Amino acid sequence: MVIQVETESQGGTVNVYLDDINARIWGESFGLLGTDNYGRDIFTQLMHGSRISIIIGIFSAFIAVFLGVLVGLSSGYIGGWVDELLMRINDILLTIPGLPFLIVLTAVLGPTIVSVIILIGFLGWMGIARLIRSQVLTLKTKAFVEASKASGGSSWHIIFRHLMPNVMTMAYTQLALTVPGAIVTEAALSFLGLGDPFLQTWGKMLHDVQYYGAVAEWWWAVPPGICIALLSMSFVFIGYALDDIFNPKLRGR
């Protein structure tokens, strides 16, 4: 390919001539990671896709942790038929295959970013609820809870005033550990062609690579996969660090 550039100093115009209009440009001279088959810069797509992955991962994790903490607190402290009902719902949702169920719901509700965030968050709270419930079952027998009961504190007062602050450290850790799962789930949906077609995400980049049969073009296929892995590992390490900080007993292991 030959590029000829002519400038006109007086008029301030630049004329660019290409000998092959269908030429594919790639390599460091025209971008850090080259371009795809449409001539779009790969590095720019990676930077743009990182925003979507982080937004979906964090907001989905917030929804999952919020639901998990709420269900775990209610189930663990109130007990009785409330505990039985919530845990049976939890068990039913745990038995449903997550990704196929998510694919069906996404096809029904539409692949918008809001629906994807809500669905991923809704399908990610069950394990968190069980962890919070087990912690609450231990805390509800403590002296400060019994003292609050004796002074006339209601169940919701005890839950939100005394129990919630004591389980939030676990919630923070679970928040960081839930983000990677949400990121990978969104990438899987986009890779299968079920994501928002108007959003450029890392999963959609991998979908385009597979759809156009460009797997051999490593500068297009490898970077999004590496970014998904590195971002997920980063949040996992953050979760482990928070767990180490909030649970000093783990440091001696």
User: What is the structural class?
Assistant: mainly alpha
Tell how many strands the DSSP assignment holds.
Answer: 2
Based on CA atoms alone, the radius of gyration comes out at 25 Å
Within CATH, the superfamily carries the name: MetI-like
Main β-sheet description: 2 strands, antiparallel
- Gap between N and C termini, in Å? 62 Å
Stretches where pLDDT is under 50 for at least 5 consecutive residues are 1-5
Task: Write out the strand line-up for the largest beta sheet, numbering strands in chain order.
Answer: 1-2
Globular, elongated, flat, extended or rod-shaped: what is the shape? elongated
Output the keywords.
elongated; 253 residues; 9 helices; mainly alpha; MetI-like fold
Structure commentary:
- By secondary structure, the chain is mainly alpha-helical.
- The protein has one domain: MetI-like fold (Orthogonal Bundle).
- The chain is 68% helix and 5% strand.
- It is built from nine helices and two strands; from the N terminus they run E-E-H-H-H-H-H-H-H-H-H.
- The chain has helices at residues 42-78, 80-95, 98-109, 113-122, 126-139, 143-150, 155-191, 202-211, 218-246, and strands spanning 3-8, 13-18.
- Strands 1-2 form a two-stranded antiparallel sheet.
- A hairpin with a 4-residue loop joins strand 1 (3-8) and strand 2 (13-18).
- Helix 1 (42-78) runs antiparallel to helix 2 (80-95), helix 3 (98-109) runs antiparallel to helix 4 (113-122) and helix 7 (155-191) runs parallel beside helix 8 (202-211).
- It is elongated, with a radius of gyration of 25 Å.
- 32% of the residues are buried.
